[in-house]
Amino acid sequence: MAGDHEVAAINSVQFPSRVRVIACARVGVILLLGALLAMTSLAGCATPTPMPPGMFSTYLGEPQRPLVPGNTTETEGGKVIEALWTPLVTFDERSRTVTYDGAAESVTSTDNRRWTIKIKAGWTFHDGTPVTAESYVRAWNYTALSSNAQGASYFFSGVQGYDALQGSDGKEPAATRMSGLRAADPTTIEVTLSEAFAIFPITLGYYGFDPLPEAFYADPVAFGKKPIGNGPFKADTEWVPGRGISLSRYDNYAGKDKAKSRGVVMRVYTELSTAYTDVLAGNLDILHGLPPDAYGNAKDIFKDRYLEQPSSAVTSLAFPLYDERYDDVRVRRALSMAIDRKAIVNAIFLGTRVVADSFAPPMVVGYNAGACGRWCEYHPDEAKQLLTEAGFDTSAPVELWFNAGSGHDSWMTAVGNMFRKIGLTYKLRGNLQFSEFLSKRGAKEMTGPFRSSWVMDYPSVENYLAPQFATASIGPSGSNTVFYSNPVFDAALADGNRAPSIAASSTAYGKAEHILAEDLPNAPMFYGLDQTVWTQRVSGIRYSIIGDIVLQDVIVDGTAV
Amino acid sequence: MTRFIIRRLLLTIPVLIGASLLIYAMVYALPGDPVRALAGDRPLSASVQAQIRADYNLDDSFPVQYGKYLWGLLHGDFGKDFSGRPVLETISQRLPVTVKLTIVAVVFETLFGITAGILASLRRNSFFDNLVLISTTMLVSIPVFVLGFLAQFVFGFKLGWFPIAGITDGWFSYLLPGLVLASLSMAYVARLTRSAMLDSFSADYVRTARAKGVGRTRIVLRHVFRNSLIPIVTFIGADIGSLLGGAIVTESVFNLPGLGRAIFDAVRSQQGPVVVGIVTMMVFFYIFFNLVADVLYAVIDPRIRYG
Q1: Among partner residues A49, A170, A268, which is closest to B168 by beta-carbon distance?
Q2: Which end of chain A is more exposed for a tag (fewer CB within 10 A), N or C?
Q3: In this complex, is the C-beta atom of B31 within 8 Å of any C-beta atom belonging to chain A?
């Protein structure tokens, strides 16, 4: 530090004022000393930013869409929506049945096509206006109408009259209200679907079906920054990109699951590692999702403040059925059986994934344990034999497609090396941005197995089967990226939709899943596992069926509000 | 001088238009469909996709798209991102963060860099000179994210001297990220100062001054340092311009919601108007601070005249 004092001494010599730069340097030295002083005097004073009493903070990735239930189709924005809104129905994980702890009193139908939704009276939006059947009907029509460009529009495609709300080739939509939807009285919504759909009540738990207050229509953009919902928390601040949003307990909340804290600050982090350091230091209360380098020891560090639970994500290796090389089911089975899933889970994911044995994860209604059967097990010899039988050309490499920058390289490389063990060569095609990958995938340009993943919107096996494999989901709008089309499979799905009860529909969906397993259009690889850690300030952390933290149940400092 | 400044400022107009055209073209040329990427792995109705394309002119040819963008600019409309948020709002929310970070970084790099450079040049080959040489080599060779996480872990977490992340502690939040961000430039400034000083020491006017009996302190500051300032000012001017463009890595590590992250996200999601708006502004800053440096030359060295 002696050097700095010397400069200060040199600078005390008087200079003509003309020499501004040097004068600046003198000011600079004073600033420098000031800065050093500030550092030393403040050293040890950087206490964690205090949270208002009774409030807690939680990690949030940057939402990509406006915070409107019908427009937020991605997970991060979804977390905010789930705190601000209460869905129509809830779901009991143990009994796997729809429960009416949400905004709906009952959802009934005699033919599974004409549904009557009774909503509970006395609910209000955060701006004090009442929640009525019309709040739902108007919101659903708004979401469905194509000129409003809402992401969840396709959720209403089953409602009668949906097509009239879709414009095409620059033409305005023919209607603005779906004919199959009406508010019979302030607490009754009548929905007529174009076809019977037994599991309709399960789908109503998805936040795309949440109501909107009148205030939304006046200024949708402003609403998307500071939403007004019907849930246990209300927005106190606008959502600022890169920063987050602050929510507080809604005292007039009519539901049973009132918030047990004063509020929650949802803080946006761009680096998971930074968020993790902040939890370790006690600056952030709840972190859902861990950085890869923390997988190894988070459990030991946080002990009883660590929770791991299966998520709804299913990752698979999908086959381009349009490519004649992968047209033969024996080839697909062989490639699937050549993969030692357990080894990948242990070596690459350090146990933070679960080996998949079915097309949908265990938490959904209608889950079939082991539906994929032998084809998802590791049988390299049989795989080799099947390839020979199928006459697979082993001279050309198997091209493996995935998007860059999301950590898929490592497990895809492992898959490639396992293919090598059965006498194949491989080539990684992972030098693609996500949007480019999606475009190529939609344009049938995958020349080999590709990464595919799916998370659910509602807990039914149907949500994994129909969007990914039904013929109706093929096309520019759909998510049937393997271009699988099997009338028998479609018929089995339709049987499930028409079934008289949810239980009966599960049986039919099970049949569909077995057909799928025989055809193996994609090879299920693993189910996701979510980790959450939290500080000593908070307790009562649990996951919802969708896999997010139930924020209203979080208790701060041991005392519920 | 005034004429010089006005001419230079007028020259920025074609540069900015050219830059915006180039950037817009580059975003346009990115492979992949931004609307498809909006939905990710989820489905998005064809009719909704068509609507979004229409809303953002994505179906138009490049000249038409760019023309519509320029037309909007003339009316003060900088466009909006895919969530409907105006680009100007994004800039106004994020620019203050980046400006604060830049100020802290520039103060650090100027103070520490110049001080270290002067002292090293005064005691050539001394212990301190070697220390500066070794420490600057280290700073230049360590990647900034390593330095960032390291500083965050040691000073933020272990010692608790600084906030770990975020901007909730006012200027105090910017000290550690500013220091990390400044580290590379600090090293350059130190070396630049040292070598420029050493060059000037052997100049004729220094010998003359010495022969006249001018004191050492006065020689060092008035003759040697002042004449060494031009390359340093040039470097710092350019550096301010580029720091204002946002520092993606430092911002991410310390979770500062500045421009760097915004531009990164916008490029990745191919949001033309957002990228062009922010980058054009960066280009303007860059030109502006280089102009400031040029003007400072004349202040530092009376032999330089503009006109």
Answers
A1: A49
A2: N
A3: yes
